[in-house]
Structure formats: C-alpha cells, structure tokens
Design goal:
- This protein is α/β, with parallel strands linked by helices.
- The strands form 4 sheets. Strands 11-10-9-8-14-6-15-18-17 form a 9-stranded mixed β-sheet, with helices on both faces. Strands 2-1-3-4-5 form a 5-stranded mixed β-sheet.
- The longest helix is centred in the first third of the chain and has 15 residues.
- The structure holds NADP nicotinamide-adenine-dinucleotide phosphate.
- The site of NADP nicotinamide-adenine-dinucleotide phosphate (NAP) has 31 residues, from β6, β7, α8, β13 and α11.
C-alpha cells in the first residue's frame, strides 16, 4: 500500500472543497466529490460531485474521464459504496475503468457498511489508501452522528443586539443584521436539509425562510414549525403560503390543525403542550434530514440546548441596540455563558461586515 504524499493531500483538499458545494444538495445521499488524476502529469482528467440526480461521485468522475481512467488515480472524499441498489455500486465503475489507485478521504460513516468498499476494491487488485483526511472527515460529521444517534446534526443561530436581545415581542422586528450576516444565514439554510423555527418567531416575523443567493435559490430544504401550548397561526407564510419547500408542523397529539394538504403534521409525545424535542429529532431524521438549522427564537433555542441537542451554534453579534421591550437571547445570563455551561466551546470568531460571528461547538 502506498503512503499519502503532498500531492495526494492537495488533490483530496480540492475534492473536499468541491464536495462542500454538495452539502444540502444531494438529498438521500452522502455529499461527495471524486477526481480522476494522472499522478505523473499531475493533471485532472475527470471529476464528479453528488447532486439531486447524481447519487455517487465516482462513476461520474470516471465517465468524465472518457475512457482515460485506466492506470490513473481516483481521489474521493468518501469510501466508494459496494452495495447494489437501483444502480451498480461505485466500486464496480472504478474496477471496470481499471483505475490503479484509489485514495479515500474518509471511510463510510455508516458502521454497517464501513470498510466494505475498501475490501471490494482491494480484492480487485487496486491499491487503496484510506487517508483519514480531516477536511473529508468534517464533511461527514453530521452523518456519523445521525447513524450513531438517530438524530440530525443541529446547528443553532441567533442575531443578538449589543444589549443581548433577539428582537421585540410587540413588532415584526427581529434584530437586523448587515447584508453579510443575512447572506451567512441564507448560506446556512442552503447547506442544511431542514430548518426549524418556533411558532412564536413564525408568528411575529412571518418569515418565508427562503434563500435569495443566486445559484442557491433553487435548493429545497424542509421547514419545521415547532408548536406549543399557545398553538400556531395557520395563515402564516410558512404554512398557508405557496412554495417549493415542504413544511411540517411539530406538535403534541392533542391538537388539530386546519392546514393545506401539502403541510405535514408530525406528532410526538411531550409535556405541557410542548413536543419532546428529542423525539421530534428522530422524526426529522426519518425524513432524511442530516443537517438541521434551528433559527430561533430564544425559547426554542433554549429548549434545544436544554435537551442537549445543540451541536454547533452561530452567535451573530450586531451593533444595534433593542432597548426596552426587547426579548433576551437567554434568561440565564449571557448567551455565550449559557452555551459554555451547556458544554459548547468557542471555536471560531470572524467579522461579517459590521457584525461579529462567534461559533461554538459541542466538545466531544
Ligand atoms: N435574532 C434572531 O436571530 C431571531 C430569530 C428568530 C426569532 N427572533 C425573534 O424571536 C422572537 C420570538 O422568540 P420567543 O423566544 O418568544 O419564541 P420562540 O422561540 O419562537 O417560540 C417558542 C415557540 O415554540 C413553542 N415550543 C414548542 N415546543 C417547545 C419546546 N420544547 N421548547 C421551547 N419552545 C417550544 C412554544 O410554545 P408555547 O410557548 O406556546 O408553549 C412557542 O410557541 C420574535 O420576536 C422574533 O422576532 C429573533
């Protein structure tokens, strides 16, 4: 077996960058990218990226190489699958194309399949290297969690004013962020499979939760409205409005809703009229959601934190001041202190135009 070289690492880095564009864009399949490369010439002959109609990256890369893959190297972020489904598995396309070497960023995060693709390729005489490549591993952190715990990887976000508020209860007035912050939030939405909002935030802001970024505005993600004891206004944009995004209401069983047929109702057990969020997450996973964005407001965010379901949190600190009548981001001191108390540590800080982004992640 060959060792990982500097050029190997660079090609894998390139594949991981390409695969990032498939996050949230390959429903039902793990996002991945693959490159067919001539190692001697250091030239690229084919590339494949998973997408809505492309379940696997490797066969696409081989096809793009148009019969020139023989003897060359395939770099892929994810272990090729060896399972037969509606289409032949990726391993067969690689074997048929007579590639000499396959460098894999990360093994299959599904434990029941992990390693099988490598065994199949080696049995066909191909030199296979499992690189344990960190950027590839990061691509599948959510899938690993979903396979292990039957829940999505949960990312929360809040925009918070200088005085620690997220908006006002009396007006349609969530804390405004600058254009860069708005774009960042829309990117989070576009790279998630689903987005969740509390009934109160849905009522006050009446958002559509769309992505307006050119090129990403056709991404489809599911929208979940969490309803508690006070119910939900079914005339809201998210429920009564027409869009290509599926919407589901999450509620305890006692409640009935008069909603359009296109809106699903997910019923879970709960307490005090509020659904149990852990059970809700299992139902969301069953709908194919691996990456879930929780958009707020404060009560829903606190519910997710308290249930120990928050994996990553983006705190966007804006320069605005809300003043009297504001809704605090948390009732338990500052939101950053609340996150730390829940076992999330700050891993990154950067600016988004006039606003400051601080990212927290669960310590593993
Ligand atoms: N700055 C931002 O980033 C941002 C983002 C979104 C919203 N906002 C602002 O946030 C405000 C609304 O926030 P909010 O804190 O009042 O309400 P919220 O978090 O939107 O609402 C919580 C809603 O979810 C329901 N719920 C059901 N199950 C729950 C559970 N297990 N845990 C927690 N809640 C559960 C609650 O029901 P019951 O209480 O009826 O039982 C309530 O209706 C608005 O003013 C909006 O503008 C700001």
């Amino acid at each position: 077996m060959t060792q990982l070289s500097g050029p190997d690492r660079r090609w894998l880095d390139a594949a991981a960058r390409l695969a990032r564009s498939a996050l949230g864009a390959s429903p039902g399949h793990l996002p991945a990218a693959a490159l067919v490369v001539d190692e001697e010439l250091q030239l690229l002959f084919g590339r494949g990226i998973t997408g809505r109609t492309v379940p696997f990256a490797e066969p696409q890369a081989v096809e793009e190489a148009r019969g020139t893959a023989r003897g060359r190297t395939l770099y892929t972020t994810l272990e090729p699958t060896s399972l037969w489904g509606r289409t032949p598995p990726s391993t067969e396309a690689i074997i048929k194309a007579k590639l000499a070497r396959v460098v894999i960023g990360c093994a299959n995060p599904d434990h029941s399949q992990s390693g099988q693709g490598i065994v199949r390729l080696r049995s066909a005489g191909i030199d296979v290297l499992l690189a344990e490549h960190e950027p590839s591993h990061r691509l599948y952190a959510a899938d690993r969690l979903t396979f292990a715990k039957n829940r999505p990887f949960v990312t929360g976000k809040l925009l918070v004013s200088r005085d620690g508020m997220i908006g006002r209860s009396d007006t349609k007035n969530a804390v405004p962020g600058g254009p860069q912050a708005q774009r960042f939030v829309e990117m989070l939405r576009a790279t998630s499979d689903g987005t969740m909002i509390g009934a109160q935030a849905a009522k006050v802001d009446d958002p559509k939760l769309f992505v307006r970024i050119k090129g990403l505005d056709t991404r489809i993600y599911q929208r979940f409205v969490v309803v508690g004891a006070r119910g939900v206004d079914t005339e809201l944009n998210l429920i009564a409005g027409v869009s290509g995004h599926p919407t589901a209401i999450i509620s305890v069983s006692e409640r009935e809703f008069d909603v359009p047929d296109a809106v699903d109702i997910i019923v879970t057990d709960g307490r005090n009229g509020r659904p149990d969020l852990s059970r809700a997450m299992a139902a969301i996973t069953a709908r194919g959601v691996v990456n879930l964005l929780v958009e707020g407001g404060a009560k829903l965010i606190e519910g997710v934190i308290a249930a120990e379901l928050m994996d990553r949190f983006h705190l966007i600190q804006t320069d605005s001041v809300t003043g009297r009548g504001g809704i605090p981001a948390t009732m338990l001191g500052g939101i950053d202190g609340r996150l730390r108390a829940a076992g999330l540590v700050e891993v990154d800080q950067r600016t988004l135009g006039p606003d400051k982004l601080r990212t927290f992640e669960r310590e593993r």
